[in-house]
Amino acid sequence: MIIGSQTSLKGIMQQLELVSTTDSTVLILGETGTGKEVIARHIHQQSSRQQQPFIRVNCGAISSELIDSELFGHEKGSFTGATSQKRGWFEQADGGTLFLDEVAELSLAAQVRLLRVIQEGSLRRVGSEQEIKVDVRVIAATHKNLAEEVQHKRFREDLLFRLNVFPVNLPPLRQRLEDISALSEYFATTAASVLSLPICRPTQQQIQYLQQHSWPGNVRELQGVIERAAILGRGQKLAIESALFIKNSDIRLIEPEETSFAENIGEVQHQASFAKLDEVIIQHINQALRKSYGRVEGPFGAAKLLGINPSTLRSKIRKYGINPAPATNLR
Ligand SMILES: Nc1ncnc2c1ncn2[C@@H]1O[C@H](COP(=O)(O)OP(=O)(O)OP(=O)(O)O)[C@@H](O)[C@H]1O
């Protein structure tokens, strides 16, 4: 279920309708938690490959020594530890879709080989001279600014051109506040079912409260907050203020009590009324970071805007767990 397909994501969904049925490579760009994988799966499901495998590979999670073998497979004995022949992700996705998540994390050497497979539609397993034909649709995603990565020579320009046939820019949640209501309702319903609790829907006032948050973790963060709110509310209400408070404040505030977590809820809710100052500070810092494109220091940095020392700002960023990265679209 893609929430927002009739609102903030409507334009994107219309584009996806056009591209899904083709075999075009798609590059999905967006901050962490904006729904890149959700979109990749949707493209696959709308394509003629829907009955074939959809394989997701987190390129950032594989060590550079193993990446070739993981992507392209290997022959028995091709390196120490290669005790048997192995088909790589490309071969496993044959006929279907390979979703290369965090593609910017690939080493430059792996990028060369990836480009070759995409262009030629064939690969060689590690330790083999034999060309194997593969029919794979590639969808790649990253939260990084690839143009910047190319500039810093961390990403190959030719691969970017090849991947960037059809770019999809997913906006961060703070730029699609109109979806917070539907997303919260959806997550509240799924949380209730998972937790076997009665469904509690967010009130209008709670939606407005949620819309004031900056959501550096985007939809994933909202999902976590709503689930926590359902637990804290024990099936009677969504305890949203407490859920956000626990996330943003020092968790030790509620730990010293020897009583159970559930018994602490009343206390936490009482403390939550004092949490607003933290919330304001976080939002203000986020606003300054957005204005300064994530720069902390320097004449155009966020510290200057806020009138504080960069080191003070850094310690606040750490304290509040703020993500200082700017919006990462291809510019
Ligand atoms: N539009 C949406 N409708 C419903 N659920 C969504 C939507 N967007 C994201 N989600 C949910 O939010 C969570 C994060 O989404 P997803 O994993 O697709 O994000 P991502 O951008 O791929 O994250 P990362 O960059 O960290 O890999 C998932 O649980 C997903 O189901």
Write the layout of secondary structure elements.
Elements (H helix, E strand, L loop, with lengths): L9 H11 L5 E4 L6 H11 L7 E5 L8 H6 L16 H4 L4 E5 L6 H13 L1 E3 L6 E3 L3 E6 L3 H6 L5 H7 L2 E4 L10 H16 L8 H8 L6 H16 L6 H9 L16 H8 L3 H16 L10 H5 L3 H11 L11
Parallel strand pairs: 1-6, 1-7, 2-3, 3-6
Antiparallel strand pairs: 4-5
Keywords: ATP-binding, DNA-binding, Nucleotide-binding, Transcription, Transcription regulation
Pfam families: AAA_lid_14, HTH_8, Sigma54_activat
GO molecular function: ATP binding; sequence-specific DNA binding
CATH architecture grouping of the largest domain: 3-Layer(aba) Sandwich
CATH class of the largest domain: Alpha Beta
Distinct small molecules bound, one entry per kind: adenosine-5'-triphosphate
Domains counted in the coordinates: how many? 3
Descriptive account of the structure:
It is a single chain. The chain is α/β, with parallel strands linked by helices. The protein folds into three domains: 10-171, Rossmann fold; 174-274, Orthogonal Bundle (Helicase, Ruva Protein, domain 3), CATH 1.10.8; 278-320. Helices cover 44% and strands 9% of the residues. It has helices at residues 10-20, 36-46, 67-72, 89-92, 108-120, 146-151, 157-163, 180-195, 204-211, 218-233, 240-248, 265-272, 276-291, 302-306, 310-320; strands at 26-29, 54-58, 97-101, 122-124, 131-133, 137-142, 166-169. A five-stranded parallel β-sheet has the order 2-3-6-1-7. It has a two-stranded antiparallel ribbon with strand order 4-5. Helix 8 (180-195) packs across helix 10. The longest helix has 16 residues, at 180-195. It is globular and about 65 Å long. It starts with 9 loop residues before the first helix and ends in an 11-residue tail after the last helix. The chain binds adenosine-5'-triphosphate. Residues 1-4, 30, 32-38, 101, 143, 219-220, 223 line the site of adenosine-5'-triphosphate.
